[in-house]
Write a structure and sequence with these properties.
single chain, 234 residues, alpha+beta, three-stranded antiparallel sheet, 6 strands, binds zinc ion
Length: 234
């Protein structure tokens, strides 16, 4: 039998492990997600993005337990939507990013790390060099990590499912490990094979090139950040 008909973060919402979801989708998929959420009794709100993506118009979809909560998320992000081209980062913008992260249930340490990258420029390494924001996030987190936990991998080589919905501040972030392990256990109860498949994808070594490409470790270009994980526990 195929796995559950939803990604891990859907289960996190259904189980009450996350207060709300924020999904960046092409419009056709956004509408399908809204219908699926409403069938499950969740409230939704949608913000069409100012600029289209490579496959056409796109939206951010918010799923929450009440219409007021979904609408609050939409209103919070409205001035800082991706693709809006915010020219200068104001104190209000930073405060909105923080509030959005908290409302989505992200750990405070990981929100702080994201805000530090945001203020520096998400495409700026600590030494000032320009790189893809995934490369910057991984390099920053690697610099702080004593150990690498596969369940905190947000950058699987195949762009497959992840346990986290946020980029961890470090690959041994304690609140992120606790969240990922609880979500893994809930998923595993429903579909052990699918949970093992996600763990296998996340545990596969991956290199993040400066332009954001994900490659096998053996194919890593010069300057890539390398993620080599210890095996996840069952
Ligand atoms: Zn953290």
């Amino acid at each position: 039998m195929a796995g559950p008909p939803y990604p891990p973060e859907w289960l996190a919402l259904l189980e009450g492990l996350k207060p709300a979801l924020r999904l960046w989708r092409d419009d056709a998929r956004a509408i399908a997600e809204i219908r699926a959420a409403e069938r499950r009794g969740f409230a939704t709100a949608r913000s069409p993005l100012p600029a289209a993506g490579p496959r056409g118009p796109q939206s951010i979809v918010y799923l929450a337990r009440t219409p007021a909560a979904a609408e609050a998320l939409r209103a919070l992000e409205e001035p800082i939507l991706p693709t809006r081209g915010v020219a200068a980062l104001s104190t209000d913008h930073v405060a909105r990013h923080r509030a959005l992260g908290l409302a989505l249930g992200f750990p405070g340490c990981c929100i702080d790390a994201f805000l530090a990258r945001l203020v520096r420029g998400v495409d700026r390494l600590a030494n000032g060099d320009v790189a893809h924001e995934d490369h910057v996030a991984v390099c920053d987190a690697l610099g702080l990590s004593q150990a690498l936990h596969a369940r905190l991998n947000m950058f699987p080589r195949d762009h497959g499912a992840t346990w986290l919905s946020h980029v961890p501040c470090r690959f041994d972030c304690a609140p992120s490990i606790a969240y990922a392990d609880v979500l893994h256990a809930a998923f595993h109860r429903r579909d052990p094979a699918a949970a093992a498949g996600i763990d296998a994808g996340l545990g596969t070594g991956v290199a993040i090139a400066q332009d954001g490409r994900r490659t096998a470790l053996d194919d890593a270009p010069p300057g890539a950040c390398r993620l080599v994980f210890a095996a996840a526990e069952a």
